[in-house]
């Protein structure tokens, strides 16, 4: 029998492959975008139906209702084609008023973003600050609001720049005592941390697609609680706004529709992302992130790192390298050795901290073992003192202890 060889071009291609370095894609451990699960990638490749077709509208109505359950609101979730910042801007322009008190809380880059957005529209918020790495105590908000009534309080649930979690429920309670509308950035807490919008007293909750919801970037989701909807029905934005006018968007959402063309493919992907969260169960999703966060903090600490935040979030972990090592060099070493992509610090924290993102169901506790081990290997190669193997053992000890039991973290 004649040997059947593949055509010459294929043979050449194989030979080239043998000699070329086959590129390995980085695994993303960044604070957004995150690794996208296969199921969502498949949904993204579907042929998009027309946005006015019955097929799409019925899916849109269904996914909107299910998203409302993930937010924990009896109100409505408005879905905008925008990055998360677009949702923040829509919230700011739709609720802030010049003749009412505006307070903005900041302990990091994303808290600062609320202030910048408000200033861009000519508002002058009163600012309540804490050091980066600290959470703003509810008492500080209480002092700032003394003698003030009504208006808005802008805050951040999980401050991604410092990997810090705020007690959003306590802060919202203080704001509500003063009759203020509570507007929260929940971009790295939705689908990660325990969050029940209405129960927590959050009137407006802004999320983005590329974090805990596991989608590519491109959607901003704005949860409007009953008080927020009532206010929008009464009055729209005082500043000029058109696409970002939430009064218009909320009126369409009430009809199960959008005022303009929605990002159809991302809505199909959102349907799948929400289904994944439903399959696992919201409480289990929160517990899972708590376990990853705890295992990573334990593992990295065993490798000599210090946890940067005094109130660590489970969406992102910020770590200070041992022995004064440059965080940028640690990140480079991890990428070269393992093809893990980590993030650095922003602004004055550049070179000072390593940030590891672990939002969404593409991650589990074994990622905490792998990343702690990679971090340990990197700092030892850069000259830190330590014993190889402690980091992975540390992270594994958390898993062996049954990780985080639901009752310990979720109320
Ligand atoms: C990612 C993020 C945002 C929004 O960022 P975009 O790049 O506009 O999507 C806002 N707030 C926090 C806390 C974030 O982590």
Written description of the protein model:
This protein is α/β, with parallel strands linked by helices and 411 residues long. The chain is built from 16 helices and 15 strands. The protein has helices at 8-19, 38-44, 54-71, 84-95, 109-120, 138-145, 168-177, 197-200, 226-234, 246-254, 264-280, 282-302, 327-338, 365-381, 390-400, 406-409, and strands spanning 27-28, 76-81, 102-106, 126-129, 152-156, 158-159, 164-165, 181-185, 204-208, 219-224, 306-307, 316-320, 340-341, 343-344, 354-357. It has a seven-stranded mixed beta sheet, with helices on both faces. The chain has a four-stranded antiparallel beta sheet with strand order 11-12-15-14. Strands 1-13 form a two-stranded parallel ribbon. Strand 11 (306-307) and strand 12 (316-320) form a beta hairpin. Helix 3 (54-71) crosses helix 11 and helix 12 runs parallel beside helix 14 (365-381). It is globular and about 65 Å long. It starts with 7 loop residues before the first helix and ends with a helix. The mean pLDDT is 94. The structure holds pyridoxal-5'-phosphate (PLP). Pyridoxal-5'-phosphate binds at residues 31-32, 83-85, 110, 156, 160, 185, 187-188, 208, 217.
Beta-strand level of the residues, as a percent range? 5-15%
Oligomer: single chain
Number of strands: 15
Molecular shape: globular
Count every helix, treating DSSP H or I runs of 4 or more residues as helices: 16
């Amino acid at each position: 029998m004649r040997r059947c060889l593949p055509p010459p071009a294929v043979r050449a291609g194989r030979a080239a492959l043998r000699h070329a370095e086959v590129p390995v894609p980085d695994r993303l451990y960044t604070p957004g975008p995150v690794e996208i699960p296969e199921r969502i990638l498949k949904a993204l490749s579907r042929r998009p139906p027309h946005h006015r077709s019955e097929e799409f509208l019925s899916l849109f109505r269904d996914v909107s209702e299910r998203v409302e359950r993930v937010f924990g609101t009896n109100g409505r979730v408005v879905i905008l084609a925008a990055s998360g910042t677009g949702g923040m801007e829509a919230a700011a322009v739709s609720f802030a008023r010049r003749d009412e008190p505006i307070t903005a809380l900041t302990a990091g880059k994303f808290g600062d973003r609320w202030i910048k957005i408000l200033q861009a529209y000519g508002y002058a918020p009163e600012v309540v600050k804490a050091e980066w790495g600290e959470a703003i105590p509810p008492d500080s908000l209480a002092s700032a609001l003394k003698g003030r009534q009504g208006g808005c309080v802008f805050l951040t649930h999980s401050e991604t720049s410092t990997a810090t979690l705020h007690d959003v429920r306590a802060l919202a309670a203080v704001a509500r005592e003063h009759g203020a509308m509570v507007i929260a950035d929940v971009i790295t807490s939705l689908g990660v941390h325990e969050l029940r919008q209405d129960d927590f007293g959050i009137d407006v909750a802004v999320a983005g697609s590329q974090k805990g919801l596991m989608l590519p970037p491109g959607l901003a989701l704005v949860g409007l609680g009953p008080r927020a909807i009532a206010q929008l029905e009464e009055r729209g934005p005082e500043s000029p706004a058109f696409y970002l006018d939430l009064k218009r968007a909320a009126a369409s959402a009430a009809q199960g529709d959008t005022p303009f063309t929605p990002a159809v493919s991302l809505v199909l992907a959102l349907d799948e992302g929400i289904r994944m969260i439903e399959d696992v169960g919201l409480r289990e999703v929160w517990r899972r992130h708590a376990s990853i966060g705890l295992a990573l903090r334990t593992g990295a600490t065993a490798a000599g790192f210090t946890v940067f935040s005094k109130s660590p979030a489970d969406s992102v972990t910020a770590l200070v390298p041992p022995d004064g090592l440059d965080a940028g060099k640690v990140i480079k070493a991890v990428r070269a050795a393992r093809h893990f992509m980590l993030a650095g610090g922003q602004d004055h924290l550049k070179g000072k901290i390593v940030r590891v993102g672990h939002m969404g169901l593409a991650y589990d506790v074994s990622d905490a073992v792998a990343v702690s081990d990679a971090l340990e290997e990197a700092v030892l190669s850069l000259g830190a003192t330590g014993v190889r193997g402690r980091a992975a053992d540390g992270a594994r000890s958390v898993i062996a202890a049954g990780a985080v039991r639901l009752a310990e973290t979720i109320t």
